[in-house]
Amino acid sequence: MLISTNQRTLEKSVSFSGIGLHSGRKVHLTLKPAPPNHGIKFKRTDLPNMPVIPALFQMVVDTSLATVIGEEGAIVSTVEHLMASLTGMGVDNALVELDAHEVPVMDGSAKLFTSMIKKAGIVEQKSPRFCFLVKEPIEITDGDRFAAVYPSDTFKITCTIDFAHPIIGIQSFSVDVEPESFEKDIAPARTFCHFKEIEYMKQDGLALGGSLENAIVHDGEKVLNPDGLRFKDEFVRHKILDCIGDFSLLGMPFLGHMVVKKSGHMFNHLFLKEFFTRKKSWDTVLMSDAFPPEDPGKRDYSAVRSVAL
């Protein structure tokens, strides 16, 4: 896999509209190019002074049903699918302008976001790209939940989920995150829920924009969407999509093998906190220096733990 050693941004701006999954509100969103070292930032154009919120884990204010970032009272909700798309397609710098507090859900996946990014085009910038290079394992557990990262020459995610519903059950999937595999194997995977959860969420003022058009809805035994699933293991692929979006809040690319089991937005965020307390377990390096010429691809992966049951 060819890894870009320079930062990348969008070639031109691109705009689209949709509704928020939980708010049900229509939102207009524009992705814009940004200069080197800008990172990904969200701009609320509907608020006075149009506050800008960096897409960083320090800005996370809620992870109950989606990942929400905020600063000084301004928030942007449900950022994970768009962030996964930018990361999966290798975009380092972009400004996201939106006129409501929630990123549109589109079809419940990252497929349309990815298409918009491709439509805008991606260009390489002159500034070098930095990354987190994992040197030692970092692991956290909570009951049967598990999240870890191990040394790797690529950004790889292995995810296992375990649901009591027969339609889902135990599923595992592993992917090297790069544009081609992201677009083909991960981006089309949609968010999902049990149909009984919808009523409870709407009673709490949530999922007001949810429908069979933007989520997989099941009754435990079967999928209720007329067109069925896009992949037989679409559920675990969507969890990987969420992981990519949540882990993108590190703020830089990283080379490591993420292994997660029964994780979610809250647990992913706990892992990010642990990651930054374990500073001896990783280095910040130029991407061009991540692979010493005299010893390419010869890191020790013996510590990688099998959690795929």
* Terminus-to-terminus distance: 29 Å
CATH class category label of the largest domain:
Alpha Beta
Give a count of the beta strands, DSSP E runs of length 2 or more: 19
CATH architecture classification name of the largest domain: 2-Layer Sandwich
Largest sheet: 7 strands, mixed
Mean pLDDT: 92
Elements, N to C (H/E): EEEEEEEEHEHEEEEEEHEHEHEHE
Number of domains: 2
Radius of gyration: 19 Å
Strand content: 25-35%
CATH superfamily of the largest domain: lpxc deacetylase, domain 2
Task: Work out the oligomeric state of the chains in this entry.
Answer: single chain
CATH topology of the largest domain, by name, is lpxc deacetylase, domain 1
Number of helices: 6
Shape summary: globular
Helix content: 10-25%
Structural class: alpha+beta
Poorly predicted parts: 300-309
